[in-house]
Amino acid sequence: ALSPGPQTHTPLPGHCCFFAPGVKRMWVPNNRLPPCTLRQALTYFLDITTVPSPQLLQLLATLAEDRAEQEKLQRLSQDSLLYEEWKWFRCPTVVELLEEFPSVALPTSLLLTQLPLLQARQYSISSAPDAHPGELHLTVAVLNYHSQDGKGPMHYGVCSTWLSQLSPGEMVPAFVRSAPSFQLPEDPTAPCILVGPGTGIAPFRGFWQQRQHEIETRGLPSSEMTLVFGCRSSRHDHIYCEEIREAQEKGALSRVLTGFSRDPDYPKTYVQDLLRMQLAGYVFKVLSQQEGHVYVCGDVTMATGVLQTVQQILANEGRMSLVEAGDLISELRDRNRYHEDIFGLTFRAQEVASRIRSLSFSKQGRKSSLLVDP
In 3D, which of 47, 29, 30 has the Cα closest to residue 115? Predict the structure, then answer.
């Protein structure tokens, strides 16, 4: 996980100070920030890009001098549906919020105490420590987009943009968090299916590097490892293509399937389509007969689609009901054979996931997953 920030400021609990409004030369202690200037606080410690919360909007309504702006801020803070539509259409930063409501007189003390702290960004490690000792590789897509249906201002991903602007040799503050449930099986002969569109390929790069290293240094047999990769167009298919080709030649990857979702020269294909159309029998064989593993890495919408597809495959190939297939997936999860590394969870994505998971039920004391047809 990464958190952009300077290396020269050490937090001193109880001694973060700023000028209180209306009081000259009066210092107020605050534990949430280290001693720093306002510019440093807004640059390195406070999140000025996340959409302001309803609670903050309610507070700003009391500071608005214009009556119409005050009423709109109050409505946004109290009407959850109105707030969600405003939030997802405008995606306003703090600066854009103040531009939309110019009559709000925002004191410095409120900025320092009410803005959320900049959170660490978490990325899947995309290298194997045995293959690259002393190194840690990341696979990062630089995020930028226009809000308001493509007609609004350009927004930039905070950490991805910061990383893209670094020069070789610059310090990157980071910490490593273990993911014990998302690792290669102890048995190197166990077949694995790796499903990762876009930057979801990140952890699987470490997987095939590790397998290739073991084949070359320990003389292990070729690995039965299938990579199912998805991207928008064939021009993006070059990501790690040379490494993937080498991994296939060395026996670390046994098969690679690629789907393109927005390429005019290819039919629209997602990773779940590849599983259903080209790997249905193999998925059933790996999960039901060979003590194999399925790994899924990517956003929650894709992961939910893959889960539904795997459930339907198990039901069709195993001649069982969707309920029984859901029970089997729950059992596979409990046995650490169905693995998920999900990122990019947004409110609406979480809402979809929660709606699907609300269909889960208990049967004879066992946790079961019941998914509906997409």
Answer: 47
Helical pair 54-61 and 67-78, crossing angle rounded to 10 deg: 160
> pTM of the prediction?
0.80
- pLDDT confidence of residue 181: 92
| Per-residue confidence (pLDDT) for residue 233, from 0 to 100 | 80
Torsion of CA 227, 233, 236, 241, to 10 degrees: 40
| Distance in angstroms (rounded) separating the CA atoms of residues 190 and 221 | 11
Q: Two tokens at 275? A: 């599983």
pLDDT tens string 263-313: 888 888 999 999 999 999 999 999 999 999 999 999 999 999 999 999 999
Distance of alpha carbon 332 from alpha carbon 190, whole angstroms: 14
Residue 239 has pLDDT above 90, yes or no: no
Question: Would you give the end-to-end CA distance of the chain in angstroms?
Answer: 33
Half-sphere exposure of 253 (CA within 13 A, CB side): 23
Sequence-ordered strand ranges (E) for the chain = 16-19, 27-30, 144-146, 154-156, 192-195, 225-231, 255-260, 293-299, 338-343, 361-363, 366-368
Nearest to 196 by CA among 186, 178, 208: 208
Residue 4 identity: P
Burial class (CB within 10 angstroms; exposed 0-12, middle 13-18, buried 19+) of 239: middle
Q: Report d(CA 330, CA 359) in Å as an integer.
A: 13
Nearest to 322 by CA among 291, 296, 361: 361
Pull the structure tokens for residue 78. Answer: 């109290």
CA dihedral 125, 196, 329, 251 (to 10 degrees): -80
Residue type at position 147: S
Q: Answer whether residue 350 shows pLDDT above 70.
A: no
Confidence of residue 346 (pLDDT cuts 50, 70, 90): very low
Q: DSSP alpha helices (H): ranges in 118-270?
A: 158-164, 202-218, 241-250
